[in-house]
Amino acid sequence: MYIEYAPQSLIGAWFGPAPKGTRFTTMGWPVDAGGLTDELIRLRDRYGNPEVYVTENGACYDDQLLATGSILDNDRVAYLRDHLAATSHALAAGVNVRGYFVWSLLDNFEWVEG
Questions:
Q1: Does any domain span residue 13?
Q2: Are 114 and 60 in contact (CB under 8 A)?
Q3: What range does the domain containing 94 cover?
Q4: What is the C-alpha separation between 25 and 73, in angstroms, rounded?
Q5: Mean of the pLDDT values across residues 28-47?
Q6: pLDDT-derived band at 114, boundaries 50, 70, 90
Q7: Which secondary-structure segment (H or E) carries 55?
């Protein structure tokens, strides 16, 4: 989520627009892999570099079934590539990342079929 200054709001801030060029999931959530790097570094700095595990990292996208029976899923591939790279940047910055786990086959199944 993006926040902007909003003096008329009870808390002085409110949800703002995503920066131009931001990609979104099918659910309309903005995708910013750099935020993962930033948050991992923040955890390192705030809590003395504990062991960190990134869990349930994934995104909802519409895939495309091809006539060959293959699935074209470029958005999800790009999401995972970018988030693995973001985790790699955090590792290079000295964050003690011990694992990275993507959604499993049935994660969030209950949102649609539960």
A1: no
A2: no
A3: 23-113
A4: 12
A5: 93
A6: low
A7: strand 52-57
